[in-house]
Structures are given as C-alpha cells and as structure tokens.
Amino acid sequence: MLAATSNDIEACRSLAQKVRGELYVDERESWQHLPFRALLLADNDRRAELAALADCGLYLVESRELKSGPVEVVGLFPMIAHPDLSSSEADRHWRDVHGPLALHHHAAMTRYVQLAVVEQISGPAIDGFALCCFASLSDLRERFFSYPDSRETIAADVARFADVQHSPARLIARLESFS
After folding, report:
1. Contact, 140 vs 75, CB < 8 A?
2. Contacting residues for 56 by C-beta, under 8 A, at least 6 apart
3. What CATH code would you report for 2-177?
4. pLDDT by residue (tens digit) across 132-141?
C-alpha cells in the first residue's frame, strides 16, 4: 500500500474519494510545526496519482493492524529509526517488542496500526508511521497512558528503536475513510 503525505488537505480529500483510500487529516489552525497535514493510504496501483499529490513524501508501506476498532481521533507518529539500528532492526523491535507493549500501556487505544516503510519513494527519510486511535480527543489526551509507569516505560522503549530527537512531530488527526 502507498502512504502519501501532503499539506494540501482538499486535494487529498478529493483523491481519497476517487481512489477509495483512508485519509488522516490534522486540521489544527496552528500547523506550521507539523511535517505534513494529511496522510493518504491507498492501493499501490494508484502510484502515479498519489505521487502527483505527495508534496511532502510518498512511501510504500506494509500495514500491520495490531488492534482493530472504531476510530474518532488518531495520534499519528512518524518514526525515524534509531541511528544505531538498521531500518529492519528498528522495525523488528517496533513490531515484536513495542507493539505488544503499546497495546498493554495504551489500554484506551481503540485501534493500533503500524505502517512500516518498505520504500521511500520521495520525501524525507521516515521508517514508519504509528496510528494510535482513540474514541475521543479527551481519551487521547487524558487516557493515552494506562498505568502510573506507562509514560516512562513507553518512552524508554521508543528510545530503543526510534530516533526520538529527529522523528517528526506527531499529528492529531481525524480519519476519513472512503473504502
């Protein structure tokens, strides 16, 4: 599947409808600190159309849905691999160690998807996108961590596989699904 990142929300919305994709949009007024404002997921056979739209980056991704459920709001975290690890080593840790840990420490999360970048077609080097979905914005903000030690446990583990200083800022997005 392809992940196109862009700052043109309306163009993404229009293309998402046409290609029956999933669109994650951060519509905050103050967005200049974000690496992009929209992420569009669509089938790989729509490469030319997505490439024309992807003003921030285009990535071939493997989608891993570790938890399935309803989506109201999404913490969308772009991830750059830790500099001491290869992309595949970072991805293996993210999938095998962090995934189960995240499911435990983010109990209010309704859906969890890891988009592992298989190929960077254009844009900055990003190794993955985490889609941490919640039933409400208040759940994302107030119930992101489930236990007293969750924040420290998750932060320590993320630092094992991700370059936390260079990974782009997270988006707080809404899902618009046209599939």
Report:
1. yes
2. 5, 6, 7, 35, 36, 123, 124
3. 3.30.70.100
4. 999 999 999 9
